[in-house]
Design a protein that fits this description.
OB fold (Dihydrolipoamide Acetyltransferase, E2P), about 130 residues, 9 strands, 3-stranded antiparallel beta sheet, alpha+beta, 4 helices, 6-stranded antiparallel beta sheet
Length: about 130
């Protein structure tokens, strides 16, 4: 199972990647594996304000529908619209092409409260 070192991770299996003045969100390799084939993504709207721990969208797979919970708070500034027609990218490339949204974070220091790759690996092995 892939757990990139340059990302931060929530206990809800959402990763966050700090890039300049934005933070990308996506699901972890474990999440996509647990969900199975993802067939639909429900996104927030551009400009939505989301709080850490709040649902910001959902994923539908052949197995279930699962809420997505924000690892940090921020304003939605970009949506990966490619996923509308190719939700399978979340299974195929969860850390690169399968990012879900980008936010302008309220406080970048909130990233420090998320798990490092090593901490996340320990968490999922418990």
């Amino acid at each position: 199972m892939s757990i990139p070192e340059d990302l931060r991770y929530s206990e809800e299996h959402v990763w966050a990647k700090h890039e300049g003045d934005r933070v990308l969100f996506g699901i972890t390799d474990k999440a996509q594996d647990d969900l199975g084939d993802i067939v639909f993504v429900e996104f927030p709207s551009f400009g939505d304000e989301i709080e850490a721990g709040e649902a910001f969208g959902s994923l539908e797979s052949v197995k279930t529908v699962s809420e997505l919970y924000a690892p940090i708070g921020g304003r939605v500034i970009e949506i990966n619209e490619i996923l509308e027609n190719e939700p399978s990218l979340l299974n195929e490339s969860p850390y690169e092409e399968g990012w879900i949204i980008a936010v302008e974070p309220y406080d970048e220091a909130d990233l420090d409260g998320l798990h490092s790759a090593d901490q996340y690996e320990d968490f999922i092995e418990e």
